[in-house]
Structures are given as structure tokens and as C-alpha cells.
Amino acid sequence: MLEVHDLQVAYGAAPALWGVSLDMRAGELVCVVGPNGAGKTTLIGTLAGMLRARAGRIVFEGQDITALPAHRFCETGIAIVPEGRRLFTGMTVRENLELGSYLPAARSHRAQSLAAAIELFPMLEEKLASVAGELSGGQQQMVAVARALMARPRLLLLDEPSLGLSPLIVHDLFAAIRRINASGVTVLLVEQNVVMAMQVSDRAYVLEEGRIVAHGEPDELMQRDELRRAYLGV
């Protein structure tokens, strides 16, 4: 479904990603983990079209999307839940969700998608008329995930979804991520909570200083002492 070949990304003259390659099959849940500053957010931002690759290729469902304009990425079937949620805090929850279904193909299924979002996060139903900025951090993260799902993506990108949330909310959020993946949505998860990320993922990549230094099944990676100490923080 997704193939990334020798991706290079820089901020001005400062390289952030060096020859990153990875792949995902349809229906998988894959995580990218690593220390702070490894380039995880840069990677997921590039896959969402928010950053431009200096070199390399991004192929999604057989189409080279590397040079697509940023606003076209969502049309291809990719949606992102960015780090920090980035809701429109002065708008209601319903308005935030409806913005997720802005494209015509998604708009025609808006009612169905809204019902599915409420089923996934039941608290949304009583908060639809609430201003998004008045919600708790955990509730805002649920709105951010639901907004992305309103676009009816085939590939969902999640950037640090557990950041700043309580352990109980993190547990519920990861349970929801598993349900999203089980519904048929392919998920790429960038996450600092290594243990939780590994528990829900089919495969994992370890990113360090802009390079992929290891990849494989989570159980295999977690058993390698050098990775546990140097890159995974456990």
C-alpha cells in the first residue's frame, strides 16, 4: 500500500531524514519509534504532504505522490492526526468534525461517518455543540482522531497521539486505535510511548538521527538489549 524509498528531508541546510525506506501493507498497523529528535514527526509530516522531500519517493497504492501539492494528499486517501491536535478551538466539536469531511467524496457520507465517530468515541455525542477549546486534552485528542476519520482515509497517520494524556486516557485511545485498524484502516503510528506502541503494532521501525536503524516484529525488537537501551528507552 505504502512504499517509501530513500527519503531525504531537510530544514534549509539542516538534514532531518537520511535515506529512509519503509513499506506498509494494506490493513497493517505499523509504528515508528525512537528517541526525541530522531525525525519521527518530520517523517510523518512528509508522508502527509506537509513537508516536501528533497529526494526519494513516496508511492501510495501504486501512485507516486512525492511531488503532489500538499492539499492533494487527502484526496489520495491519506489523513493525519497531527501532534498537538491542532483543532479549531473557537469552533464547536461538530464544526471541527464536519471540516474533516470537506472533500466531496467524504461529504456525501458525512452522516454515516459522524455516526461511526460517535460509536468509536461515545462522549462526542453530548459534546457536539461544545466549543472544542473547552474540552479536556483527552477529549480534544478524540475529536482530532474522529476529524481525520471523517475524511474516510485508507491510511491514517498518527503523530504522538498519547502526548500529554493521562495513563487511563492513553489506554482508551490505544484501544480505539486498535478498533480503527480492525475496521480496515491502515495505520502508521509515530509514538514516544514505546511499550504501548509495540503492543498494538504488527511491525515496527526504529528511527534514530534521521535513519532507520532497525525494523521487524515488535516482540523481536523488544528482545534486543542494545535496541532497548539505546533507542527504545526501556
User: Unreliable runs, pLDDT <50, ≥5 residues?
Assistant: none
Number of domains: 2
**Helix- and strand-based class?**
alpha/beta
Estimate percent helicity: 25-40%
Q: Roughly how many Å is the radius of gyration?
A: 17 Å
CATH level 1 name of the largest domain: Alpha Beta
Topology, pairings included?
Layout: E1 2-11, E2 14-24, E3 29-33, H1 40-47, E4 55-60, E5 63-64, H2 73-76, E6 78-81, H3 93-100, H4 104-107, H5 110-120, H6 124-127, H7 137-149, E7 155-159, H8 167-182, E8 186-190, H9 194-200, E9 203-208, E10 211-216, H10 218-222, H11 225-232
Parallel strand pairs: 3-8, 3-9, 6-7, 7-8
Antiparallel strand pairs: 1-2, 1-4, 4-5, 9-10
Helix pairs in contact: 3-7
How would you characterize this protein structure?
By secondary structure, this protein is α/β, with parallel strands linked by helices. It folds into two domains: 2-77 and 153-232, Rossmann fold (3-Layer(aba) Sandwich), CATH 3.40.50; 87-147, no CATH class. The chain has eleven helices and ten strands. A six-stranded mixed sheet has the order 6-7-8-3-9-10, sandwiched between helices. A four-stranded antiparallel sheet has the order 2-1-4-5, with helices on one face. β1 and β2 form a beta hairpin. α3 (93-100) packs parallel to α7.
